[in-house]
């Protein structure tokens, strides 16, 4: 298939582009490089720099590309910023996605895989989280992801969209060959922050809350390797059904606490990694982990990277090779 990938220069997007190409698909990456990296784009992909809200440019690229499918990884993802700047998030994450979907409908492109989030569930009262868990997002970021899912569901009924939303838990890790990894500015995710401390780029890692109702008092999250996420996207693309909207959790089904992440990183890196206790952050649920049984039954998907040690080891290898991100190495 000829696949149009929005946000294909970003963290998860770049891994999915590589997986698509290795599966024999032709890929065009469309990215404004506001947070992605040109160096992360597979050299076999066609690259177009552009804004997702630029309707005329999108139409021009689609007219030339004659695509069979599209994937979307171009949402803003800073939860805290979404609270302080909700209009920015609704404009990019929802309004710009509408522009993309208009373009898909106009050009008869009906396969669409969307990078969603477990943030659509908010603070669940039961665990593990299934696709039937009530969706009550507690911040604009989660609300915008849920809004796009609603639009996809209605588009499936109205014009035959074959839409799949993959609800990530915590994407982590790097490529086995050390060529792709996680490079955000500013960095917000726990594992790369911990590894930056190990590299001497930060003095310590902050632990936001140590009094949660968990075994060690810190938050528990489900860390899923980014290459496993890429595999889930490939399966969704190849098996989606016209006129049907589907949504699946993508996680390992187990959780690791903040202190467990730090402890594992100390073993992997051989570094001390100082940690400093800080106050809780508003809106941080104590425990989040997935029931990924639905995607296993539907697509036969299962994570290959099942341990925190494997995930952190792959990330550490990349951070050592690229200590300052894609601008180094």
Summarize the structure in words.
This protein has 329 residues and is an alpha/beta fold. It has 2 domains: 2-171 and 223-250, 3-Layer(aba) Sandwich (Rossmann fold); 173-222 and 253-327, UDP-galactose 4-epimerase, domain 1 (Alpha-Beta Complex). It has 10 helices and 14 strands. It has helices at residues 11-22, 55-65, 79-84, 86-106, 140-159, 190-198, 226-239, 258-269, 293-299, 308-321; strands at 2-6, 26-31, 46-49, 69-72, 111-117, 162-168, 170-172, 205-208, 220-221, 223-225, 245-250, 256-257, 275-278, 287-288. α5 (140-159) links the parallel β5 (111-117) and β6.
Q: What order do the helices and strands come in, and which of them pair?
A:
Elements: E1 2-6, H1 11-22, E2 26-31, E3 46-49, H2 55-65, E4 69-72, H3 79-84, H4 86-106, E5 111-117, H5 140-159, E6 162-168, E7 170-172, H6 190-198, E8 205-208, E9 220-221, E10 223-225, H7 226-239, E11 245-250, E12 256-257, H8 258-269, E13 275-278, E14 287-288, H9 293-299, H10 308-321
Parallel strand pairs: 1-2, 1-4, 2-3, 4-5, 5-6, 6-11, 7-10, 8-13, 9-14
Antiparallel strand pairs: 9-12
Helix pairs in contact: 1-7, 2-4, 4-5, 6-8, 6-10, 8-10
Question: What is the second-level CATH architecture of the largest domain?
Answer: 3-Layer(aba) Sandwich
Our count of helices gives 10
- Gyration radius over CA: 19 Å
CATH topology of the largest domain: Rossmann fold
Proportion of residues in extended strands:
15-25%
Report the span from N to C terminus.
33 Å
Quick one: CATH class of the largest domain?
Answer: Alpha Beta
Summed up, the domain count is: 2
What proportion of the residues is helical, as a percent range?
25-40%
| Helix-strand sequence | EHEEHEHHEHEEHEEEHEEHEEHH
Residue windows where pLDDT falls under 50 for at least 5 positions: none
Structural class by secondary-structure content: alpha/beta
Mean pLDDT level? 96
What's the total count of β strands? 14
Q: Which strand order do you get reading across the main beta sheet?
A: 3-2-1-4-5-6-11
Main sheet: strands, sense, barrel: 7 strands, parallel
């Amino acid at each position: 298939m000829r696949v149009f990938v929005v946000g294909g220069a970003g963290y998860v997007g770049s891994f999915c582009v590589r997986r698509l190409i290795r599966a024999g698909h032709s890929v065009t990456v469309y990215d404004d490089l506001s947070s992605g990296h040109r160096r992360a784009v597979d050299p076999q992909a066609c690259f177009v720099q552009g804004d997702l809200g630029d309707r005329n440019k999108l139409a021009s690229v689609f007219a030339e590309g004659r695509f069979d499918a599209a994937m979307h990884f171009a949402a803003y993802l800073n939860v805290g910023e979404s609270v302080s700047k909700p209009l920015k998030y609704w404009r990019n994450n929802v309004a710009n996605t509408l522009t993309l979907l208009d373009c898909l409908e106009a050009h008869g492109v009906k396969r669409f895989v969307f990078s969603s989030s477990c943030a659509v569930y908010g603070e669940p009262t039961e665990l593990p989280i299934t696709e039937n868990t009530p969706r009550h997002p507690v911040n604009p970021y989660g609300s915008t992801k849920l809004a796009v899912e609603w639009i996809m569901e209605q588009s499936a009924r109205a014009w035959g969209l074959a839409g799949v939303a993959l609800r990530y838990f915590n994407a982590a890790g790097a490529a086995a060959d050390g060529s792709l990894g996680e490079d955000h500015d500013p960095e917000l995710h726990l594992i790369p922050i911990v590894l930056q401390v190990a590299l001497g780029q930060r003095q310590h890692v902050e632990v936001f809350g140590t009094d949660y109702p968990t075994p060690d008092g810190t938050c528990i999250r489900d860390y899923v390797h980014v290459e496993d996420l890429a595999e889930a996207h490939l399966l969704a693309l190849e098996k989606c059904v016209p006129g049907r909207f589907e949504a699946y959790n993508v996680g390992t089904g187990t959780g690791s606490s903040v202190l467990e992440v730090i402890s594992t990183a100390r073993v992997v890196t051989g570094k001390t990694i100082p940690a400093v206790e800080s106050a809780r952050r508003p809106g941080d649920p104590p425990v989040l982990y997935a029931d990924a049984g639905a995607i296993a039954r539907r697509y036969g998907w299962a994570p290959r990277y099942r341990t925190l040690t494997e995930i952190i080891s792959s990330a550490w290898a990349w951070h050592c090779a690229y200590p300052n991100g894609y601008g180094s190495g």
